Amino acid sequence: MIKFFVYAVAMLLCLIETAKAAVNIAVIAPKSGDYSDAAKDLISGVKAAVSEINNQGGLLGQSINLIEVDDQCDDRFNVSMAQMMAVNSSPEDKMLLVIGPYCGNKFFEVAKIYEDGKIMQIVPLPVDGEKLEIARKGLIKFTGTETTQAAAFFSFYKHKFINQNVALVYDGQNRSAVEIAAAIQQIFTDEKMMQRLTTYNFANYGDDFKQMADEILLNNQVVYILGTSKNTAKLTREIGEIRNGTAIFTSRYALREDYTDIVSSRQKGLYFLALENLRDNPQFAETLVRLRLKRQEPRGLGAYGYLSVLLWKTIVMQANSFDYEKTSQVSDSAEFVLPWGKVKFKEGNPNKSAPYGVYGFSEGEYTQVY
Do domains 2-123+280-339 and 148-276+358-368 have the same CATH topology? Predict the structure, then answer.
């Protein structure tokens, strides 16, 4: 791992060295490893935006040098990389913006390093409540909170599964899972439908996924699973072996490659909660046409990576400067038009979160169904 750190730092320094005439930004995401599928879409969107800006003559007369950092979702690497970026203060080597990291277990520590180094940071994925509470100068949590998926799930449930019982399965040791589960329970309570909802905690069953599946299917036709990728996959497989076609929901961003290794490709009824596909959003239509003319089709998180760069571009243009103090002031005071509405960021948090959609998985592709 030490060799990997040294190699990555050396590569980053070389990339910056070769582009001294440009301003530097970075996207940090796992180009390889368990989360690479979704992360590659994110990187692709960032690259598309940078290419577009450079083809239009750059930003404030400067071209943009994009550095892609494959962090493999390694928290130690993200801390080391942040520390290295923060000490590069010369005009040629200075990092102005970091998009990411995709995985954020060291979120508090990394965000503080970027603030101290006067580097703007945009996090393009929804975050849990703990990260939402972190206020750092120059930090933007672009898409809002993970609990937004609870409303998307309930809306689809009413549309397709109304009057069917729901098993809400969560990992009580995972803060994000607990928060989303609480949001779902609150919605069912508000709608006076708690009789339709039964909760199950992974901790009460150990590794006995067969018993868990048996108990869940006694009274429930819909299952929402909030747990680690492996536990989610094992429970999903057990449910499918007992009753294939059972509607099973889970968060797309919690899954690793081990999910598809464990769950049978023949299992039906699988749904995934993820940020809404913007291809059908009228506010994104003009942008989509422009990208398609360049033979670029944003998949998954690609649109959000693309929009993250455009948000930074808007901030820089309003500040008429790349200066950290000026851009931070704009990011915390201006109103921005995004596909999901007019948004203001207070201490880095949007007053309106990006909506979630419901996806199915077929032939290797996630397709939005609601």
Answer: yes
The domain limits of the chain are 2-123+280-339, 148-276+358-368
CB atoms closer than 10 angstroms to residue 365: 10
Tokens standing for residue 334: 């201006």
Tokens 């800006």 belong to 53
pTM, whole model, 2 decimals?
0.90
Q: Report the Cα 16 to chain-centroid distance in Å.
A: 27
Superfamily of domain covering 148-276+358-368: Response regulator (3.40.50.2300)
CA atoms within 13 A on the CB side of 308: 34
Interval 40-80: pLDDT, tens:
889 999 999 999 999 999 999 999 999 999 888 888 888 99
Six token digits for residue 244: 């294939």
The two structure tokens encoding residue 297: 């089709």
Cβ neighbours of residue 122 under 8 Å, at least 6 residues apart? 97, 98, 99, 140, 142, 308, 311, 312
pLDDT tens-digit profile of 342-351?
Answer: 999 999 999 9
Q: Which of 120, 112, 113 is nearest to 139 (CA)?
A: 120
What are the tokens at 162?
Answer: 């109304």
Beta bridge partners of 341: 338
Q: Which two tokens stand for residue 103?
A: 């995985």
119/77 Cα distance (integer angstroms): 18
Give the architecture-level CATH label for domain 2-123+280-339.
Answer: 3-Layer(aba) Sandwich (3.40)
Quick one: DSSP state of residue 284? G
For residue 195, count CB atoms less than 10 angstroms from its CB and return exposed for 0-12, middle for 13-18, buried for 19 or more: exposed
